[in-house]
Each structure stands twice: as C-alpha cells, then as structure tokens.
Design brief:
With about 180 residues, the chain is mainly α. Helices cover about 45% and strands about 10% of the residues.
Length: about 180
C-alpha cells in the first residue's frame, strides 16, 4: 500500500501572494467576474429516465414516468446553460476534457433538488463542484480567481440621472426622518 506523498488538499494551500510561490511560478488565473459570453455547448449527456416506484402485492414495481423524465431533462439543460454563464466557464471553454465533469455536476445538481437524492448524491455534488471550480476551495485548487468587477463599483456610485435622481432624493429625505433613532 502506498504511503505518504502529495494528495489533493493535503497540507496548507499554496499562497499565490507569497515570495515562495513567486519563485515556484504559482499564479492564479483570473476569470472575468462578468462570466462567459461565448456560445453554450450542447449538453453532452443522454436523457435519463425517471421511474415511479411503488409496491404491489409485496413486489416493487418500477414504471417510467415520462413527465418527470422530461422535467428533469429541462432542469438539467437550464442548469447547464446557467453554468456556462459563470466565470468558471471561461476556463472550461478552453478545456473540453472538463465538460463531462461539468455535465455530471449539472445532472447531480438536478438530482439533489429532488426527493430522490441520497446522502451519497449530495456528497458527489460537492466533489464535482470542487473539481470544476464552483466552490471557493475548487477555485483555489484549480488555480483560478474571479477578478474583481471594477466597473460594477463605478456603476453603483454613478450619479442617478433625471427621474431616477428625483426618486433617489425623495427616498433619501424619507430615510433622513428616522435617522435620529426616535422612530417617528
């Protein structure tokens, strides 16, 4: 049996801002905060059949449920399209080999939204999320960081114009009335 050696998440994570990481060439790849804007690839997995299970004369009966099958498929496609709008998708677009893992995360996510999900399914969901960078630990593990959206701050602090400016002033004056803490 193998002993020792580096394992996923063993020991402290590398700090890309440290001098040692600089010497070793450890750098994070910045992913754009606004997400992926390219074409969404077709969902690569086949439609999975959902079954309705019940007991009849002490025998378990499984019957395909076409409505549930179609609903699950629609949810998977919806989650797939959402996943491809995230910053992580910018990295996946260049790494076709990850697409199956992304699809399995999508399928497991849809399953975990149902009453049929087991603890093992939920554990798998977390593992897939780490693999494809959908968790903070997964981002770090993949060497990715989501870049700060500097334009968002400017949009938030921009002066409202016209009618919006008047509404903002009116709201500000209403809020100023209770600013002394008297409540009325």
């Amino acid at each position: 049996m193998t002993k020792g050696g580096a394992r996923n998440r063993s020991g402290p994570q590398k700090d890309p801002t440290s001098g040692r990481s600089d010497r070793l060439g450890v750098k994070l790849t910045a992913l754009p905060a606004e997400g992926f804007r390219g074409e969404v690839p077709e969902f690569p997995l086949m439609k999975v059949t959902v079954f309705d299970e019940y007991y009849e004369d002490k025998q378990r009966v499984k019957v395909p449920d076409e409505g549930a099958t179609e609903s699950r498929w629609e949810r998977e496609v919806e989650l797939w399209e959402w996943a491809w709008s995230t910053p992580q998708a910018c990295a996946w677009a260049n790494e076709r080999w990850r697409w199956h893992s992304v699809a399995m995360w999508v399928r497991t996510s849809a399953l975990c939204e149902s009453a049929d999900a087991t603890a093992a399914d939920k554990n798998s969901l977390h593992r897939f999320a780490d693999q494809i960078g959908m968790t903070p630990a997964g981002l770090k593990e993949n060497g990715w960081a989501i870049a700060a959206d500097e334009l968002a701050g400017k949009r938030d602090t921009a002066e409202p114009r016209g009618e919006a400016r008047a509404e903002a002033r009116a709201l500000k004056s209403r809020l100023a009335v209770v600013a002394d803490g008297s409540g009325g």
